[in-house]
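As a warm-up, study this chain.
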Amino acid sequence: MSAVIIDGFEIARQVREDVAKKTAELKAKGITPCLAVVLVGEDPASVSYVTGKEKALLEVGMSDRSIRLNEKTTEKELLDVIHTLNTDTSVHGILVQLPLPKHIDEAKVLLAIKPEKDVDGFHPISVGNMLIGRKSFLPCTPHGVLVLLKTMGIQTSGAHAVVVGRSNIVGKPVAVLLARKECNATVTICHTGTKDLPSMTKQADILIAAAGKPGTITADMVKEGAVVIDVGVNRIPDSSKKSGFRLVGDVDFDAVKEKASFITPVPRGVGPMTIAMLMQNTLEAAECSL
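Now compare it with the structure written out below.
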């Protein structure tokens, strides 16, 4: 029997609908949630992501303070922009689109954003609060994964969750969140140094693929009835597409869906949740200004 395909697009739509309703309530009190997305350069994937965020802001009724800077912007110039946004009380959230050009220190830039405006959840203070279970902005993609699991009624308490990937953006934070008492899962993190990866993934009740490499998870690596969440977004050349490429995840979707109980597709899986949770974080940042 084929897996239930988790419709991340529809669940994200529900989240955005709720955010739009609460945004309207805030606006009635004189506060318009505002997000400043800062893009440096013209990286095609980054431009696409920023355009998606701008569209979502418009849809939920928030104010869009996008700032686009050219590739040659210096680190000091970017830090000056962040300082201005930090001190602007009408801006509730700041997001600097990554990756940045090589001449700019990414860590220094993320550190410059005030934690109370860090709607991406990447500031060390936000990460520390997440780790010890204090209230903070949660990183959008990992948080989106949790909302998918909860919405689909998937039991996490007592489950063995295996995370493939240890990035600061997805792998590490999703492992931390799954291990927190709210989720109560037992978590194993796998990475390029893991010996015999299939023996680990086959133990997973919930398998999170976040390696950033197509074909990482094949059907023989998945336990019958496992829940498979594919966070990977990989561009593969495809001359039949107008864009010249197609998007695939880290999982061999067609084969794995015949073994899994639930599975996320790519696209329309985890991706839409990332922007939805960003809107949620921006709303919460604005609510804190009341």
